[in-house]
Amino acid sequence: MTTTVESLQLTLKAKHDLLTNHAVFSAIRTQSDLRLFMEWHVFAVWDFMSLVKRLQADLTTTSIPWYPPANPNAARLINEIVLGEESDITPHGAMTHFELYLSAMKEIGASTRQIEQFLGMIRKGVAVPTALKRVEALAPIQRFVNSTIATCLEGQTHQVVGSFFYGRENVIPEMFQALLKTWSIAPESVPELNFYLERHIEVDSGDHGPAAQRMIDEITNNDPAQIREVLEAGIHAIDERHQLWDSLLAALQQSS
């Protein structure tokens, strides 16, 4: 029996609510906890941009010679997101949100060695699964990143945008609000991270989230089969994030 759009939407909402209220956020009580959180989470900050770039490649023209995109509305929406994510105006000037996160990590003394070694390998053309193993990323991190990259490489455009919207843009503002609300860290003690979190809450809820929702409408053109696959991709992305948070929560509890 074919799963209905309505039942998928109900499942997605339930999983969304569980994720945004995950106990991992309230488990961050010390600077040491926060450093551990960021050393895990930075890989999710990084692989987010592969979703963005896959959508930019699909919805705009990045080849030479250039030709007009098939859907100018979708092209504009993803280009607006790329502008903010890849060259936002920050206290350090224009920079990527990923680099801003690295700066926040260094501010509190979190190690960036592993992610920087990983990026060095990626720049040299090492495959993501291989690079993750070589830097000895923990198994839950490997699983999460490999799942994201598999979506980027194997998913159809509408599935990628489903993962992007439901697994990221639609859930990140509430996750970050929960973190700011429940962690036992004074925001003024981590100004760069606080800026990063507040900035994402602002742009994802106010601009990028609605833009991604409109992209879904543009890409699927209300085709029921595609909408089901969009929702299924979103559910899968949320499930993967939940598993990452479950593992991180266990690591935080073990270290306390």
Jot down its keywords.
about 260 residues, mainly alpha, two-stranded antiparallel sheet, 11 helices, about 0% strand, globular
What can you tell me about this protein's structure?
- By secondary structure, this protein is mainly alpha-helical.
- The chain is built from eleven helices and two strands.
- It has helices at 5-20, 31-59, 72-86, 97-108, 113-123, 128-134, 139-154, 157-169, 172-182, 191-220, 224-255, and strands spanning 88-90, 93-95.
- The radius of gyration is 18 Å and the shape is globular.
Put the structure in a nutshell.
This protein is an all-alpha fold and 256 residues long.
Number of helices: 11
Helix content: over 70%
| Mean pLDDT over the residues | 94
Structural class determined from secondary elements: mainly alpha
The N- and C-terminal alpha carbons lie at a distance of 47 Å
List low-pLDDT spans.
none
Major β-sheet strand ordering: 1-2
* Beta fraction: under 5%
SSE series: HHHEEHHHHHHHH
Main beta sheet strand tally, sense and closure? 2 strands, antiparallel
Secondary structure: number of strands: 2
Radius of gyration computed on alpha carbons: 18 Å
Broad shape: globular
Set out the fold topology:
Elements lengths: L4 H16 L10 H29 L12 H15 L1 E3 L2 E3 L1 H12 L4 H11 L4 H7 L4 H16 L2 H13 L2 H11 L8 H30 L3 H32 L1
Antiparallel strand pairs: 1-2
